[in-house]
Amino acid sequence: MGKARSQGNADVAIIGGGIIGIATAFRLAEAGRHVTLIERDAPANAASRGNAGAFAFPSILPLASPGILFKAPKWLFDPLGPLSIPPAQFPSVLPWLLRFFRASMPDRIEASTAAQAALNRLSETETATLTKEAGLDHLVRHDGALELYESEAAWRASLKSWERCEKAGVEIEHVEGARLAELQPGLSPRLVKGVFLPQWKTVSDPRDYALALLEAARARGVQLVAGAVSHLADSTEGVMVTLEGGRTLKAGHAVLAAGPWSNRLTALLGERLPVTPERGYNTTLPPGSFDLKRQVIFPAHGFVVTPLATGIRVGGASELADFDAPVNYKRARHMLDKAAGFLPGLKREGGTEWMGSRPSMPDSLPVIGRASSSPRILYAFGHGHLGLTQSAATARLVADLILERTPPIDISPFRPGRF
């Protein structure tokens, strides 16, 4: 074998060009660090491309919860349900699922909710700072979101969860009748109750937002390198990042922010963390398909409908399946059928279907912290449905660790070794 070719040195090498990696690159470049961002595909081309575009700061309750224990058995084997596992995937997903059920126990819920609430509060302030510094305020919409219920009983069943959110500082408004119709005209009469979340924000388009942030980062000196990382190791000379084909890059620190692909590299470092690909599906309809005032959420069905500059996006759901599992676009069509029932005026023609994998942890908390094998390698992945929401806060926390500053919140709940 020939000698590996050098790609150059950096203060920080960030592996993963999604919204987490991009935001972290921006924050470190703002602090004067020489940053190289490494991406195996086009930047912002995975979950950062097709997500629902929400800064879901009020979303502090983990998916793992006592209530899920009653719903999950029915959902898991329904191929069109809100949470599904294709039968062929069950053996490989089972270890993750057992941890998920353990995280759903009452003794774990309070701690994970408190940690998520603290991270989301930081996310709200850090996002405001980041978008202002990067010149992206014009891409953020402050319309709030509306969670919808089909019966009084379903709404009442949600009240305990909303009380927990209010105790954590989330602003909510219970609505019905004329106020519900004012917030979103054209709803089906089947929808009788709603909860309005004024702190919820959306972006004009998640990929456009991520790419605009990338351009702001590159304007501050961030270098973008195309390639898949095959090896990652600490050495006396620094962190050595090896790309497929033999190129190498040496850095003072490395940040692993490769979403659901991250565990392939943590395994090389001797850590097998339970991050699993969680597929989401959507259909983006052309602009004008419905007069949608703000994002609307259907919690009983596991999907949302979002107004974007690029159209109306109908999507969500969770499918625990590996990268090479067959794609089931029936899930996207099933959500579109349901959306048409709840939004009778929705025009369903001309939509574009999409599927992408989120990086999900059993306790719904991301992994943020130093690798056990090296203090110079940091992890920043596993954000599940909240990657965009928590991107600015994660960037702040990673920067604090690298710059040896005290983080503004307790990061121990996100430590890699918690499993």
TrEMBL record:
Coiled coil (residue ranges): none
InterPro entries: FAD-dep_OxRdtase (IPR006076), FAD/NAD-bd_sf (IPR036188)
Sorted UniProt keywords: Oxidoreductase
Organism: Nitratireductor rhodophyticola
UniProt protein name: FAD-dependent oxidoreductase
FAD dependent oxidoreductase domain: residues covered: 11-401
Cross-referenced SUPFAM superfamilies: FAD-linked reductases, C-terminal domain, FAD/NAD(P)-binding domain
